Amino acid sequence: MSDNKDQAKTNIEETKPKKVKVKRGKLEAREARMGYFFVLPWIIGTLIFVLIPLGQSFYYMWYNIRITPLGTKFTWVGTGNFTQIWLENPEFPQQLVTYIWQTIVEVPIIVVFALIIAMMLNGKIKLKGFFRLIFFLPVIIVSGPVMNMLVSEGASTIPAMNTQAVINALDTFLPTKMANSVGELFGNMIMVLWYSGVQILIFLSALQKVDPSLYEAAKMDGGSGWECFWKITLPTIKNFILLNAVYTVIFLSSNEQNELITMIKNAMFSGTKEKGYGYASAMAWMYSIVVTLIVLLFFLLLGNKRDQYDRLVSKRKRMLKREERLARKIERRGARNVKKLERARRSHRYKTYDGNGDY
Amino acid sequence: MKKNKIVAALLTVAMVASVLTGCGSSGSGSGNSSGATGEDGVTTDNITLTYWHYEDETTVGLMAEAFMKKYPNIKVECKQIADMSTDLSAAAAAGTFPDVFSGTDSDTALANMYWMDITEYVENDPDMDNMMVSIKNYGIGKFDTDRWFGLPTWYQPSAIFIDRNVITKLNLEMPRTDWTWAEMIQLIKDATVDDRSGMKYYGLGFYNRLDSLYGIAACATAERAIKGEFGFDGTDFDLSYWAIGEQEFGDLQTGGYVAPKQNTQQMEDWSGDWGTWFGATGHVAVFSEGFWSYQNLWGTDGYQEQYGLDIVPYVTPNVVDEKDHNIIANMYIGGVSTSCKHPYEAYLLLKFMGIGTEGWKARLDIYEDESITNASGVALKHANMPVPMTLDTEVWDRYKAMFPTDEEHKKYWDDYFASITRPVPYGWYSIAGYWNFCDQYFNKIGIHDLVDAGTAKAADYAAEATEQANYYHAEAMLSYFGPSGYDVLSEEEIAQYQAVVDSFGS
Q1: Nearest to A41 among B12, B113, B339 (CB)
Q2: Quick check: A70 and B113 CB within 8 A?
Q3: Backbone angles phi and psi of B328, in degrees to 5
Q4: Longest CA pairwise span in chain B (Å)
Q5: Measured between CA atoms, how close is B299 to chain A, in angstroms?
Q6: What CA dihedral angle connects B367, B375, B275 and B454, to 10 degrees?
Q7: Positive or negative CA dihedral for A269, A273, A274, A279?
Q8: Dihedral sign, CA of A117, A118, A121, A122?
Q9: What is the chain B residue with the closest CA to A276?
Q10: Which residue in A174, B91, B239, B501 could disulfide with B462, CB within 3.0 to 4.6 Å?
């Protein structure tokens, strides 16, 4: 019996594919080292400027921190910073709600606008490079203080546009908060367009990766441009839509025009005793949780859903597994029944027609 | 290919190195110090002091040179502050805190213990005997304790200006220079003329709201010894005084006695130009302006001739006919930082840059030479020149000589200068907790807008605002000067402030 078992074990081991260890070549090893070497600044940068400050701010948010010329004073306040923000700073919750509304409304508009412009720039037009430059230029020029100056001069609005009329019109069928957010969007229309530069670039690269033969085949089958867009372009670049949506959320959440960022910065450098680094850290963590939730929302809305074929394959696989389980179950049950019958036969509980117990 | 890799590798190493070496710090008050001092008590070592300020950079640079000339072993490095709390907290975190700085928001400095106790220096300084009365008597820089933490470094009084040409055109009489509040309001009303035949004449154009001026001019000293904004008497606020001025000013605005502000539709409708400043229209009689408006604008060559103006200063009036009364003022407070390694030398620098007679003589040398200009090409006396805080006669004679000296105008200026020797700073300079009160309560309720628009009465807010102001002040006093702060309050004072905090909201 044991011999049989050993034999079976050997057979199983023989059927298993053996892992072949291939020694890495010198060139490959050197390339890998160089790769790590080149990403080293990023790793160090992330460690120093992201992970360490992240950990620090997590630590800070439980303290009241005063930075005096003689050193930094930490006073444990536990959740005191949070209660103070929510109970004594009415601006923060208000701004947070406004930010959520604005982001949810602005992100789709920016992404759709970027997609439209990218498709136009991807077409056969003259001075294609020049137009691409035009749409990307604001990203380079309009950053930080320049943007602040332009906004303070009213450059982000279209003077001829009556924002109040838009808000009044929207107010008739939308909740007031939403109507205001959409209205403000009209008020800042130029800014929304300026925010689309990077997204246009991402969409352009995505569009250029779509296999032209797909369009060719579709056209041969009589597909219109509209149908090609919905059946070929959009499914092919859907991952980039998510990427752009996430990028836009992060950009809107962290640019200098964001009131919450200004509020956190002001709290950080505030001279008042109850504010400071601890208070600002608590604000920043709450804000980052909200930003993460918004990113999650867009991920759920735009995340990569499987198509019909994938679903059918999974269904078939599930069915096969179920059948396998059932077959194993029947097999086990059969084996048990055989043993039961054997035991019954041995105990002479069953008699055959000739009385000897054999069937 | 190999060459490219080497270059790329070197660049990467350089980037990493720059990242790693980016964070450094240096101490303050640097220099080799052996502790040796001269006969005057000043170190004989070569030291460096850093001075941060809000003034014109060229002026301060020249002042620093004058100081270094007097103390050749002390090097002074100056920096203009862009934003006080941001700049100073960043400097504190980086270990590059200045030895001396002059600021506009005392709450920030006190909450973070930026300033050291300089009582010993101030009280033994003979120069202090010659200071303006209110600085000494009210202890501007003591923050209602018995210790000195700062000294005024820059002073400009509030000022009322009158355009004599408008008064003449409207057939009105110039008021007496020691006028009262009621006479000023009456003049504003009388000088508002809209005969529909041309551009309307307004009685008042303002930069400083009248309620700010009224808060300390609201009553006789015998009634309440007001030594700060909002009826502050050194211990408590009483905003019922402020409410009267606020309401009066609001009523003037809704009554059409106040000229439109620059860059408004109302200004465009009135003057035909959105960007016009009311002070350049020749159609406003009384101005509640910053003192700087004279030297920076009206006093510049040809300005008044160009716009047909004849501007003279008037003292900010008091409600009662008291000759000597306090006036509200912009007054930066400076101090020696707690991290300074050479406090006495830093104190001398602080005094030289601000309040001291010697420093003022050096300042006047700079201002009198109009060939010296700042980065904008402006002669330094036209770049926010402050007012002396010393009562030294020589300084004042030289100072007055920089203003109109013709017989017709001199008497106005002499009377004005005689009336500004009792300055009281705006609350954020000198009252603990004032900034927090404004930031977290007063500015948030938007009372100015409500009263100006005629939708609320200031008096309805006075009681609650008084309670809030007293609470913020008491809390700040305990926090800044109690055991967790400088620890200079007596047990009685602590109990007194604690009682205010405990009774708040009950």
Answers
A1: B12
A2: yes
A3: -75, 150
A4: 91
A5: 30
A6: -60
A7: positive
A8: negative
A9: B89
A10: B239
Contacts of A336 (CB under 8 A, 6+ apart): none
Which residue among A40, A66, A68 sits closest to B16, beta carbon to beta carbon? A40
- Calculate how close chain B gets to A69, using CA atoms only, in Å: 5
Six-digit token string for A301: 């809305």
CA of A180 vs chain B CAs: smallest distance (Å): 22
User: What whole-number distance in Å separates Cα of residue B493 and Cα of residue B143?
Assistant: 13
E strand intervals along B25-119: 47-53, 74-80, 100-103
Homologous superfamily of B47-155+331-400: Periplasmic binding protein-like II (3.40.190.10)
Which residues have C-beta within 8 Å of that of residue A245, sequence separation ≥ 6? A107, A108, A111, A298, A302
Instruction: Say if residues B396 and B413 touch (Cβ distance below 8 Å).
Output: no
What residue spans define the domains of chain B? 47-155+331-400, 157-327+419-456
CA angle (A306, A311, A314) in 5-degree steps: 120
Q: Is residue B308 within 8 Å of B170, Cβ to Cβ?
A: no
The identity of residue A94, as a single letter, is Q
Q: Distance (Å, rounded) from C-alpha B30 to C-alpha B19?
A: 26
Angle at A203 between CA A201 and CA A206, to 5 degrees: 115
Residue type (1 letter), A192 = V
Structure tokens at A84: 């103070």
Sign of dihedral through CA atoms A178, A183, A188, A193? positive
Contact criterion met (CB below 8 Å) for A359 and A347: no
- Residue where the block lists tokens 């006396």: B381
Among B19, B87, B337, B481, pick the best mutation site for testing chain A contact (most A Cβ within 10 A): B19
Coil, strand, or helix at residue B160? strand
Q: Cβ of A69 and B339 within 8 Å?
A: yes
Q: What angle do CA B248, B250, B255 make, to 5 degrees?
A: 95
- Are residues A274 and B439 in contact, defined by beta-carbon separation less than 8 angstroms? no
CB B206, CB B287: distance < 8 Å: yes
DSSP B250-284: HHHHHTT-BPPPTTSHHHHHHHS-TT--GGGSS-E
Closest CA to A290 of A85, A81, A103, A46: A103
User: Can you identify the CATH homologous superfamily of domain B157-327+419-456?
Assistant: Periplasmic binding protein-like II (3.40.190.10)
pLDDT tens, residue by residue, A13-63:
555 566 666 677 888 888 889 999 999 999 999 999 999 999 999 999 999
Q: Does A41 sit within 8 Å of B113, measured CB to CB?
A: no
In order of their start, the domains of chain A are 85-311 (1.10.3720.10)
Going residue by residue through chain A, which has 359 residues, state the pLDDT in tens, using 9 for 90 and above: 445 555 555 555 555 566 666 677 888 888 889 999 999 999 999 999 999 999 999 999 999 988 888 888 888 999 999 998 988 788 889 899 989 988 888 899 899 989 999 998 888 888 888 888 888 877 777 666 777 777 777 666 666 666 777 778 877 887 777 777 777 777 777 777 778 888 999 999 999 989 989 999 999 999 888 899 988 998 889 889 999 999 999 988 988 778 899 899 888 887 777 788 999 999 999 999 999 999 999 999 888 666 677 788 889 999 999 999 999 999 999 999 999 888 887 887 766 666 555 55
Rounded to whole angstroms, the Cα distance separating B263 from B335 reads 38
Q: Which of A100, A124, A291 is nearest to A207 (CA)?
A: A124
Structure tokens given for B466: 């008084």
**A249: its two tokens:** 């959320």
CA-based nearest residue to B136, from B227, B207, B216, B50:
B227
Q: Which of B351, B337, B342, B335 is nearest to B97 (CA)?
A: B337
Phi, psi of B131 (to 5 degrees): -85, 165
Question: Of B12, B88, B436, which has the smallest distance from its Cβ to A38's Cβ?
Answer: B12
